[in-house]
Amino acid sequence: MHGTPIDLQLLNACAAILLLLSFAMLAQRRIVTMVNLLALQGVMLFLATLLLAWRTGQGHLLVSAALTLGLKVIALPWLLHRLIRRLQVYWDTEPLLNVPGTMLVGLVTVVFAFGLAQPIAELASTATRNALGIAVAVVLLAFLTMITRRKAMSQVVGFLSMENGLFFGAMSATYGMPMIVELGVALDVLVAMLVLGVFFFQIREQFDSLDLHHLESLKEEQ
Amino acid sequence: MNATAWLTQFLEVIAALALAPLFLGWVNACRAWLQNRSAPSLLLPYRGIRKLFHKDAVIATGASPLFRLAPYVVFGAMVAAAAIIPSMGTGLPFRTAADAIVLVGLLAIARVFMSLAAMDIGTAFGTLGARREMMVGFLAEPALLMVIFVASLISATTALPLITERLAAQTPALYPSLAFTAVAFTMVLLAENARIPVDNPATHLELTMIHEAMLLEYSARHLALMEWAAALKLFNYACIGFALFVPWGASLGGEAGLAELAVSIPALALKLAISGLWLAVIETVSAKLRVFRAPEFMASAFMFAVLGLLVRLLLGA
């Protein structure tokens, strides 16, 4: 650790906290807290992007930092909180696997992700290439969150967390995607959120619940 | 080994024996202040132990020799643990005798004997307490080992005094891995010492007890030793925490003189006072978990520790 500049240390700390927040989401049963954790993840991404922009002097990273702040810290959590209030869903049902079990699976996933990212990180030439493993781990943990939940709401939060992981991965491997791609993805996520919001109401109207369990059987079989 | 090293070793054990009840009293007093109660005397644990030593011991019919032996083994293990934790100085003569893994083993011996003694009498509550203790212990122990391994990875040794020396000698840097393991260690400390989120040390309701349920059959000098050992355990855990996460202030190295030792004593007192207050704050703001939520708590501690390990391995931070 001798001689590591302070900004790189801070970036590493951001990456570590990002991973921790993914675990917190995995263990959390309350949807409101999950959304807050997602917003915190956005804050960490914002800080990491700012630090990277300052370190590399690349102007376009400042734009994506602003985009992260506006979209992932403010707009999406606000939308989700509004949906939660409207739909009156505050709790997920018990996850498919109990919490200690999920955490252990999560730890194995992280080890797998780190192993997976090792050869890719060797190809990258950026200062932050070690954080690539963390990005892959965040993506896989978000997958796990989606797999172990039943409610549509928490699956969407998992989906958004996955997008955070992808964003962080692009940033640590190549200092961010081209601006046009980033804008496109940001718009996609926003639109997806709006469309899914409409879906929630439709699902609830059909089944009186947001439990996706009901979608598993076909109508004719009932 | 010079005379100062032996003096440090001697002082450390004496300080652990003498200060452990005071530390417990301090935590209890802080809790009382935070909860707007008038605080009990700081010396109350001493009086309790003295009172118990003056009583006549009563032993249940059918108790095996193990039941009589257990308090001495538990107390002895705690004193031995206190001798290898570098609470004041790292130049201990015992530093080559035992490393951090032996320390975890000593704590495990105490736990096993306590549980066996609790089951020895055959009462329902003793067995219940022993089972719960083992349930908490089997999850807390790997978490504690993981915490130690992270510090070992950073300092490239498993000897606790060397870990302390090397961590203190490092240039100050952000270590997310150490921050994670500090959280894990705090959780393990709370669980292993029967503090609030897992067990309530002040409870009188047998069904919710873990630690206290194992002591129900003990009286007089045996109970006094058990309570003293419990206080020592809390003291030892606090000192492990200082050795791993706040190594500053302890007299470092085998050549440290009397001046460093003189500084390390008030430093230890200050660290104990702050950590006691911190413990009381945690216990005041958190609610006791249901017994069956305790594994979740311990799983989180384990997860924090392993995350620290992984972050250390991947980021080198």
Q: How would you explain this protein's 3D organization?
A:
- The complex is a heterodimer of chains A (222) and B (317).
- Chain A is mostly helical and 222 residues long.
- Chain A has one domain (6-208).
- Chain A has helices spanning 6-27, 31-56, 59-87, 99-123, 132-148, 152-174, 179-207.
- In chain A, helix 2 (31-56) packs antiparallel against helix 3 and helix 2 packs parallel to helix 6 (152-174).
- The longest helix of chain A has 29 residues, at 59-87.
- The N and C termini of chain A lie far apart (62 Å).
- By secondary structure, chain B is mainly alpha-helical.
- Chain B has one domain (3-315).
- Chain B has eleven helices and no strands.
- Chain B has helices at residues 3-34, 44-53, 65-84, 100-120, 124-155, 160-169, 176-192, 211-214, 220-245, 258-285, 294-315.
- In chain B, helix 1 runs parallel beside helix 10 (258-285), helix 5 (124-155) runs antiparallel to helix 7 and helix 7 (176-192) runs antiparallel to helix 9 (220-245).
- The longest helix of chain B has 32 residues, at 3-34.
- The mean pLDDT of chain B is 85.
- At the A-B interface, helix 1 and helix 4 of A face helix 7 and helix 11 of B.
Outline the fold blueprint.
The complex is a heterodimer of chains A (222) and B (317).
Chain A: H1 6-27, H2 31-56, H3 59-87, H4 99-123, H5 132-148, H6 152-174, H7 179-207
Chain B: H1 3-34, H2 44-53, H3 65-84, H4 100-120, H5 124-155, H6 160-169, H7 176-192, H8 211-214, H9 220-245, H10 258-285, H11 294-315
